[in-house]
């Protein structure tokens, strides 16, 4: 295994995982996305290593998540699994109401909000990840934030369920 | 294009809250190893695919080890917990889940997830199209069957209940000596067929007519496997709404009726 790729995985995984969690709303799906994105980077490592492998990984992750949403698969998660050697740790309290509200956003809006909040990307960078125009990315972000606030305001405190964490 | 976007500064509190919401989630100790293992599997499979692109993709190995390729591309090795004898032997990293796999630890603790149907293979005949498909899914997470007691009797009871719910008067369920409950059924193929778990897994047969014949085995290891065969036709000769993305094995141990015409390597 290429030592640079190993280092890349160590460095990028936490960032990718945070974004993936914001997009998926549960650590299991988040890990699936991260692993798949990193595997795809690994498969093209020779080509992307000297470019921007981080950007490639993040773009891959975002688009994988959108594709995943298109398949419209609903899943009922069972709660905490007594798994040894988990690939994901949860150190602290999650915010189920916020996570559920994020999941209520259309996929592109969710991506825009998550990338701005977590990666602090500007409109042009969000547009690049989404494969859309800057104006469209700006619209997704603006509408997504407004909608997120609406959803949170609609949900009485403590009534937003979240399975699987 | 944007129309009257709201100033994002109004929502700084929300952005901060989103950022705070994701901070508890961090890579676990095995994260790096899992990526490297998955990459190694992908590379191995890529090499195999190049060599035998036309061959069936899945094998059922010795000692009950079932190797299932997930739709996202990673293999999932599942060893039934009641065959392994030790925790190590019963550890399994995966279960199929709607296009991916779930690294969910011990197989006996896998209680969630569903799977989309995957077309096994299909081939045109005159006058129609014949294909076979298979569903895999995990046990019903709402049930009481999985965590804790793994006894065969409990499985048998749960399997019988699930089978009965599934066939719902369209067929009967028979219990084998090994605890597997097998349901056989026929349904019209003029619409969508639903897998019997949480109403997930929709096999669309748009515009086609014919009979969909299937057999589902609810196995003692907690897995349920469905094999379907459909002799269908449609006016334009194009029945499937999507090209099968993956191949599964023909379930020789389940499908025993030669009259179905289910063929290995078809």
Largest sheet of chain A: none
Q: Which assembly state applies to the chains in this document?
A: heterodimer
What's the β-strand tally of chain A? 1
Rg of chain B over CA atoms, rounded to whole Å, is: 21 Å
Largest interface: A-B, 67 and 60 residues
How are the strands of the biggest sheet of chain B laid out side by side?
A: 6-7-13-12-9-8
Q: Could you give the distance between the termini of chain A? A: 33 Å
Total beta strands of chain B: 13
Helix content of chain A: 55-70%
Structural class based on helices, strands and sheet pairing of chain A: mainly alpha
Mean pLDDT of chain A, to the nearest integer, reads 81
Radius of gyration of chain A: 16 Å
Keywords for this structure?
heterodimer; A: 165 residues; mainly alpha; 67% helix; disordered C terminus; B: 266 residues; alpha+beta; two-stranded antiparallel sheet; elongated
Explain what this protein looks like in three dimensions.
The complex is a heterodimer of chains A (about 160) and B (about 270). With about 160 residues, chain A is an all-alpha fold. Chain A contains 8 helices and 1 strand; from the N terminus they run H-H-H-H-E-H-H-H-H. Helices cover about 65% and strands about 0% of the residues of chain A. In chain A, helix 6 crosses helix 7 (about 125-130), helix 6 (about 105-120) packs across helix 8 (about 135-155) and helix 7 (about 125-130) packs across helix 8. Residues about 70-85 and about 160-165 of chain A have low confidence and may be disordered. The radius of gyration of chain B is 21 Å and the shape is elongated. Chain B has 5 helices and 13 strands. In chain B, strand 10 and strand 11 (about 200-205) form a beta hairpin. In chain B, the strands form 4 sheets. Chain B has a 6-stranded antiparallel beta sheet with strand order 6-7-13-12-9-8, covered by helices on one side. Chains A and B meet through helix 1, helix 2, strand 1, helix 5 and helix 6 of A and helix 1, strand 1, helix 2 and strand 5 of B.
């Amino acid at each position: 295994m290429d030592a640079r790729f190993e280092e890349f995985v160590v460095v990028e995984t936490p960032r990718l995982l945070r974004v993936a969690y914001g997009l998926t709303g549960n650590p299991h799906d988040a890990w699936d996305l991260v692993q798949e994105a990193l595997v795809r980077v690994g498969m093209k490592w020779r080509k992307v290593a000297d470019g921007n492998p981080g950007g490639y990984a993040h773009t891959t992750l975002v688009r994988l998540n959108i594709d995943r949403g298109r398949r419209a698969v609903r899943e009922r998660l069972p709660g905490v699994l007594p798994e040894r050697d988990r690939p994901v740790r949860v150190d602290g309290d999650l915010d189920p109401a916020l996570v559920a509200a994020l999941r209520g956003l259309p996929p592109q809006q969710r991506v825009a909000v998550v990338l701005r909040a977590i990666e602090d990307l500007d409109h042009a960078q969000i547009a690049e990840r989404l494969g859309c125009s800057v104006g469209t990315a700006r619209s997704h972000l603006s509408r997504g934030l407004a909608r997120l606030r609406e959803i949170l305001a609609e949900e009485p405190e403590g009534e937003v369920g979240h399975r699987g964490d | 294009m944007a129309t009257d976007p709201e100033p994002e500064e109004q929502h700084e509190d929300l952005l901060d809250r989103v950022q705070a919401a994701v901070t508890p989630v961090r890579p676990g100790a095995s994260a790096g190893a899992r990526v490297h293992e998955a990459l190694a599997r992908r590379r191995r499979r890529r090499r195999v695919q190049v060599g035998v692109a036309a061959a069936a993709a899945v094998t059922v190995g010795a000692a009950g080890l079932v190797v299932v390729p997930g739709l996202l591309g990673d293999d999932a090795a599942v060893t039934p917990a009641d065959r392994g004898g030790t925790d190590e032997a019963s550890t399994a990293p995966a279960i199929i889940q709607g296009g991916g796999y779930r690294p969910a630890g011990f197989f006996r603790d896998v209680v969630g997830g569903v799977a989309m149907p995957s077309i096994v293979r299909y081939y045109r005949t005159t006058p129609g199209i014949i294909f076979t498909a298979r569903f895999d899914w995990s046990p019903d997470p709402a049930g009481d069957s999985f965590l804790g007691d793994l006894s065969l009797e409990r499985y048998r009871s749960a399997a019988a209940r699930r089978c009965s719910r599934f066939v719902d008067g369209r067929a009967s369920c028979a219990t084998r000596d090994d605890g597997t409950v097998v349901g056989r059924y026929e349904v019209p193929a003029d619409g969508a067929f639903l897998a019997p778990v949480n109403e997930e897994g929709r096999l669309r047969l748009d515009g086609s007519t014919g009979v969909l014949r299937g057999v589902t085995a609810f196995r003692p290891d907690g897995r349920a496997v469905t094999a379907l065969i459909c002799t269908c036709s449609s006016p334009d000769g194009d029945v499937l709404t999507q090209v099968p993305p993956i191949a599964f094995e023909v379930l020789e141990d389940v499908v025993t009726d030669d009259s179905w015409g289910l063929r290995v390597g078809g």
